[in-house]
Amino acid sequence: MMQKKAIFVRSAVLAGLLLVAACGQKNADSKSPAAADAGPAMWSVSDENSTIYLFGTFHILPKGSKWTTKAFDDAMAQTPVTLTEVDTKSLAAQASMAKVVAELGVNPPGVTLSSTLGPDRAAHFSEIAARYGLPMSNFEQLKPWLAMVALSVAVMQKEGFEADSGAEETVLARAAKEGDTVDHLESAEYQVRALASLDEEEILADFDTSIDQYDDFDAYAERVLTAWTTGDVATLEQETLADMRVKAPDSFRILITDRNSNWAGEIEKMMAGDQDYFIAVGAGHLIGEGSVVDLLATKGYKVERVQ
To answer: Where are the domains of the chain?
Structure first.
């Protein structure tokens, strides 16, 4: 049982927040390039002696998805160091995730998911789970944040999405082929602890926002995937992040804003040298006011959307 839960969270770390995005940048160029350069959104950040490409990913994609472009190929070829959000592949990272999930994701004796959610939320969750052949009993031992993660990954997998087909897999395979140095911006344990750190009221608010997306998953997934593939950041904002920003502001701060600030600080350190980097993270961290892109533009770096 615990092994299955650990696998759910490992996949969900790759899935992130499915895909989060925001628009309305004040300081950075958010306009789409010419149609010939259309593809998932990507920016360059540069100073006098270094360039960093910031590529917005979709962590879990349908098998066989085609999205690479010449701009993506060129950016990876030009950069000897590649970074992603998190290491989920090493044995050490997987062991750490399993440990923290057991610590933070499982209800104590006598507490069930249904009792925590209350009758209305539990019925909504159960109805969506049953639609995909998943009995409610599979989730009762899980705390709401982990139950939502588990349901999200299970639904996406049943709909033909695969973590192994996610954008990061392509990025890492290309990095290996090119002999890049590979690193990560944070640990998987940090991501799991961030999810688990929300208080119950905020978790339930985020739960309400997330569960609504699965009432008509096929239509929702089509809209979001099309928006990501074409770099349509306005639609991404509307479909994935707008409700979270308003209805679950603490979730937004912990899962988006705080991490954006952390990563911008790390990228500043990279910019102090003369190395070039390719950084691939969930698209929502790169788009909108308070995004990594926006924070770096505010600090005076030259920021340009290149795809």
So the answer is: 2-305
